[in-house]
Structure formats: C-alpha cells, structure tokens
Fold:
Amino acid sequence: MQDKEIRDAIASILKKEVGALSNVIPSEIINSMANNLSKDFNNLIEKSGYVNKTKYRALQEVADRLEKRIELLEESIK
Structure:
C-alpha cells in the first residue's frame, strides 16, 4: 500500500470507530492521528519483512540498474 492509502484507510477506521464523536472532533485531529498511526503501521509492516509500494519500486529500480551493470560487465569480460 502507498502511504496515502494507508493514511486514508486508518482515518476511515478512526472515523468509523469514534462514531458520533467524529462530528465533534475536527478532521485535522483525525487526519493527524491517522498520519501518526500510518507511520507506526509502516514500521510494523517493515519489521515483518514487507515494504510499501514506494520503497518496493525504488528497490526494484536499483535492482534493475544493478542487473544492467552486471550484464555490461559480463559482456566486457568476454
């Protein structure tokens, strides 16, 4: 999941669980709580060995570039 998707999902859960209080609590506070919880959620996910989409794509790009460099080096050795 992307950071924004996680943040939106947590904000939705908070609004649902808080129920009637969500009308009283300013949305900025709920969004701030969701933002803080999404960071903790990301850390928990990463400790389990997973990464979010943004980090995955960045790592995939690095891996692709390294593969190309290895291929070029192998060709130059031949």
